[in-house]
Amino acid sequence: MLEILTNYYHYFLQGTRTTILISLITVFCGFLLGCVISLLRLSKNRLLNGFARFYITVLRGTPLLVQLYIVYYQLDFIPYPKVSVWGIALERALPCVIALSMNSAAYVAEVIRSGIQAVDVGQSEAARSIGMTGGQTMLHIVMPQAIKNILPAIGNEFVTMIKETSVIQYLGISDLMYNNGIVVTATYNPLPCYYISAVIYLILNLVAGKGVSIFERRLKRSDR
Predict the structure, then answer these.
(1) What sections of the protein cross the membrane (predicted)?
(2) Which of 8, 28, 128, 209 has its CA 20 to 30 A from that of 2?
(3) Are 59 and 105 in contact (CB under 8 A)?
């Protein structure tokens, strides 16, 4: 295992970098889209509410890999830039980001919705009584409190996304698992390669979990 790591460490480093970058972009985009879907889910408009329910049901009820292929082939008419950024081919990476973000948003939307509903309704009534509009109340009163409540769940989504990005290897993105396959092919010794990848994923998730815990403690400290 040590010999493989010494000779092919650059493949694992490149794959790890791609995995981290795709995960960060996906969680950020998924969070923004999830906010929109959650607000639609809370809307009293039946059409908007129905669309949000349909979106969440479909995205949570179908495999991520299937969604990845559907987005890749369905949106093949989009002229994605044929350039590479940090060794990542955008032509193949952007469909992956879109699919992963849409999938993440379906789960994040329900988390945000539960966080919003957990905020005391008296907070909204008090904001309205001093002349704040519905949008201002949601933006300045409800959402900040909701985000503090759901931060552990959002952090868990980031940890989950680090692992779920492994599906992008099927579209030729040089993430950790794709590069792991390259090393396996070169060495004909798969087991040590998978041990190395497993350790890397574990380290990434531990670091991500620790970062979320630190941020959560700081938020609690600021409330005192």
Answers:
(1) 20-42, 54-75, 194-215
(2) 209
(3) yes
